[in-house]
Amino acid sequence: MEYMSQEGYDKLVAELRQLENEELPRVKDAIAEARDKGDLSENFEYHAAKREQGRLLSRIRYKQKVLANARVIDMSLLVGDCVQLLSKVEMTNLANNRSRTYTITSPHEADIHEGRISIKSPIAQALLNKKVGDIVEVRVPAGLLRLRIDSIER
To answer: Buried (b) or exposed (e) across 12-47, using 16+ Cβ within 10 A?
Structure first.
C-alpha cells in the first residue's frame, strides 16, 4: 500500500489517462501504418513501433498497479508536532549553516527540484518522528550530515 496526497493521486490518474487515450492510439496507428508498408521481417518502422508499444503498455500497467494500491491521506487527520508523511520540514545543515525545506512524500510524488523527497530516502528516514529542535545525523553518499529541524508544517 502506498500513501500519497490527493494532488499526487490526481497527477497519476491524469498521466495514466494521457498514456491510454493519447499515446497508445498514436502507437497503434504507427504500427498499422508500418504494417501497410509490406514485408514485416525487414520493416524497421514496424519493429520500432512494436517496441514502443511494449514500453508504453509496461508503463500503463505500472501506473495502474500503483493506483490500485494507493491510499489518499486525509490531511485533516494529520496531527502532532513530529515529522511524518506530507510534512514540510525546514532544516539547517550544521556543517555549513545552510537552510533547506523539503516536503516528505511518497516515492511516486518525489521531485528534488520541487523540494519533495521520498519517505524512503535516507534523509526522510532519519527525520521521521523527530521534533523541532532535534538534531539528526544522516549517512548519505557524500558523508555524514548533521541536520537541525527548525520547523514542521502540515
So the answer is: beeebeebeeeebeebeebbeebeeeeeeeebeebe
User: 54-67 burial, b if ≥16 CB within 10 A, otherwise e?
Assistant: eebeeebeebeebb
Kindly state the helix (H) or strand (E) to which residue 10 belongs, with its residue range: helix 6-18
Q: Which three cell numbers stand for residue 80?
A: 502532532
CA 146, CA 98: separation in Å to the nearest integer? 11
* Mean pLDDT score of the chain: 90
Mean pLDDT confidence for 76-92:
85
Cell of 60: 500503463
Which pLDDT tens digit goes with each residue over 2-53?
888 888 899 999 999 999 999 999 999 988 888 887 777 777 888 888 999 9
Q: What is the pLDDT of residue 153?
A: 87
Q: CA-based Rg of the chain, rounded to a whole angstrom?
A: 22
Q: Among the residues of 21-99, which ranges form H helices?
A: 24-35, 44-68
Q: Three cell numbers at 14?
A: 491524469
In this structure, what DSSP letter does residue 43 have?
A: -
Task: At 141, list the grid cell.
Answer: 553518499
